[in-house]
Amino acid sequence: MLAKTVRIVPQARAGIVERFGKYKGTLPAGLNIVVPFIDKVRYLIDLREQVVSFPPQPVITEDNLVVSIDTVIYFQVTDPVTATYEIANYIQAVEQLTMTTLRNIVGGMDLEQTLTSRDEINTGLRGVLDEATGKWGIRVNRVEIKGIDPPPSIKDAMEKQMRADRDKRALILTAEGQRQSAILTAEGNKQSAILNAEGDRESLILRAQADREAAILRAQGEGQAIQTVFQAIHDGQPDQSLLAYQYLQMMPKIAEGSANKVWVIPSEITKAMEGLGSSIHEIAGIPRDATPRTRVDMGASEPQLPRGSDDAETRATNEAVQEAIAAAERAARPGRTARSIDPAATATEPDPLSGPADPPAGSTDATGPGAPAGQ
User: Fold this and answer.
1) CA 244: distance to chain centroid?
2) Which of 273, 297, 334, 352 is the most buried (most CB within 10 A)?
3) 307-324: per-residue pLDDT in tens?
4) pLDDT tens-digit profile of 229-264?
């Protein structure tokens, strides 16, 4: 009797008590006292949220294709008395209601829309189930579609379609990539050609300007060189003997070279020799007192020995040379007016360009033995 009087109801449960087969009350969680043999706990209802997974059900789409759809429903009992006395098996009722509602919703969609509109199907199912199960004391929280399986033939066709679509996209992307590459390559070649042309133009302009300036500078240099040489010649007051001497100095260069087999002597060589001879004999030579009006700076010359050097050997040599020159002049002085002079005397006659002039009669010879070295 004690066991039938005291009833313990677990947490999140509700006990339906009947008295003589009629609803008496609802027992909450915890310790409860009932009348033994009169009151009876008929049902123990779970008030927690429950999850029910339904097996796949065949559904026909708008384009007459059969697909298998399996769903999951999350619901909770809000009124234990209504869930007990308004419907015999609320889980089965929810399952059948879900299948019928799902057929109605999917029947208005084609296969492509069915596969891509899961959120729309879930929302439609939840609205219909929540409205229908409210009078049963049940609240539907969520409805989820686990999977949609089309027939194998449709799967194969969809795979082929998807593969073809992917191939088309790949070809389009490849063509667009090649077009962009060709465009960029052409633009790069264009810019490169433009830059090369501009570089060539600037290079030609700069090269032409440099050639022009070089030609101008070269012409100016040649003009200044000719002017300098011409001025130096006029300042030096040259005569025919000097020109003849320069002409004779250039004669050996004509014979230079291993390919010269025959050497033709110009006819002007005799005139040059005559002029040079006349300069030696002072008939048509350079005047003694001819000096250039302008002295050209020829740079540093070789160092000269100081006057009055104490070197005995050098002084003796200079005295011997001066004595030889004086003896040659005394020997050649009696025959200066005749062209048929003794060859030996002519050979010893000093050169007016290098030796001193004859002193006048009755004067003292400056190149005598008593002259200092380097005089």
Assistant:
1) 69
2) 352
3) 444 456 667 777 877 787
4) 777 777 776 666 666 676 667 667 666 666 666 666
CA distances from 73 to 50, 240, 319 (A): 8, 136, 146
Task: Identify the CA nearest to 282 among candidates 294, 270, 290, 291.
Answer: 290
Amino acid, single-letter form, for residue 295: R
Neighbour-count burial of 362, counting CB atoms closer than 10 A to its CB (0-12 exposed, 13-18 middle, 19+ buried): exposed
Query: Which among 83, 128, 141, 130 is positioned nearest to 102, based on CA atoms?
Result: 128
- E strands of the chain, at which residues? 6-9, 13-19, 22-27, 30-33, 39-46, 49-53, 57-60, 66-77, 138-149
- 313 vs 140: which has the higher pLDDT: 140
Domain 49-150 grouped into CATH 3.30.479.30 = yes
d(CA 171, CA 179): 12
| Paired tokens of 114 | 């069915």
Radius of gyration of the chain (CA): 69
Q: What is the pLDDT at residue 172? A: 95
Beta pairing, strands 49-53 & 66-77: antiparallel
Is the confidence at residue 361, as pLDDT, over 80? no
Structure tokens at 97: 């209601």
The rounded distance, in Å, linking the Cα atoms of 163 and 184 is: 31
In 3D, which of 101, 126, 112, 107 has the Cα closest to residue 59? 107
CA distances from 266 to 249, 252, 270, 277 (A): 14, 13, 9, 18
57 Cβ contact list (under 8 Å, min separation 6): 68, 69, 70, 99, 102
Element (H, E) at 249: helix 240-254
pTM over 0.85: no
Q: What is the C-alpha separation between 42 and 22, in angstroms, rounded?
A: 10
Q: Residue 50 is which amino acid?
A: Q
Domain boundaries, the chain: 2-46, 49-150, 313-369
Residue 15, token pair as written in the block = 């006990």
